[in-house]
Amino acid sequence: MTTSIKQEYLQVDGLKTFLVRAGSGHPLLLIHGAAPGASSLINWKLNIEPLAAAGFTVYAYDQPGYGYTENPSDYSIEYRVAHAKALLNALKLDRLHVLGNSVGGYIAARLGLEDERAKSFVTTTSGSLSPQGSADSQALAKKHSEELREYEPSLENMRKLTLGTIFNKELVTEELVRERYEMSTGKNYEAQLQRRNAARQRPLHDELNQLRVKALLLWGANDRGVSVERGIELFQRIPNAEFHLFDRCAHWVQWDKAERFNELVAHFLRSKLKALRIA
What we know:
It is a single chain. The protein is of the alpha/beta class and 279 residues long. The protein has a single domain (5-278), classed as Alpha/Beta hydrolase fold, catalytic domain (Rossmann fold, 3-Layer(aba) Sandwich), CATH 3.40.50. Helices cover 42% and strands 19% of the residues. The chain has helices at 40-43, 48-53, 77-91, 103-114, 135-149, 155-165, 174-182, 187-195, 228-237, 253-256, 258-278; strands at 5-12, 15-22, 26-31, 56-61, 96-100, 118-124, 214-220, 242-246. It has an 8-stranded mixed β-sheet with strand order 1-2-4-3-5-6-7-8, sandwiched between helices. Helix 4 (103-114) links the parallel strand 5 and strand 6. Helix 6 crosses helix 7. The protein is globular, with a radius of gyration of 17 Å. The two termini are 33 Å apart.
């Protein structure tokens, strides 16, 4: 049975915001990452329908300055956190699960820490959320950050970037490269340039022991920018967290290991929802 996907626009904090909605059940908000070409329809392409079919109302949106959402006047990640909270208000959600990819994991963690409507927290490999780790881990992260920062829109550059994002090269199709490239051009490239000078996110390392919601961390062993060491350090800072490490898997766990990813996320969230009902 095919799940119906609805695409729409909402006014969120004065910005025309693109939203994908699918399924029925407990709300699940998907928050994409921050690399060039990031968007709800691309980052979560292999996950929206399966998670909706698993019994959730899935909401996936484009952050300000990404995808089809308008560019903001404030390009900081702090504003993107505020925009996410405003989105929950616009959707009139009183409880939900949050699932972040990469930098989206930082935003999801902020919701878990600061917004009592968030009841469970899931993230894929996230450098912006993780502790810095050893000198080797920091060097790896710096090199990857420079690669992202220097990206200029072209099909060739996007193909190279995507081959680093996904371990399974068979998934890096011409269609994916073209779609991601198109999402990295025009107003989104302008936003990329503006983000270079925006205020950086505040570190959450010393706050994560206060995370009151259950957490699931899904990590790729072959990530080119975020080491496994940092994922383990993140896991150790979050009370009662679960940590899953995938071999032959790079930064986009939700692509490289899509089937297992969807199974794990659905099972985790259903178990936490059951616990909430009992409580």
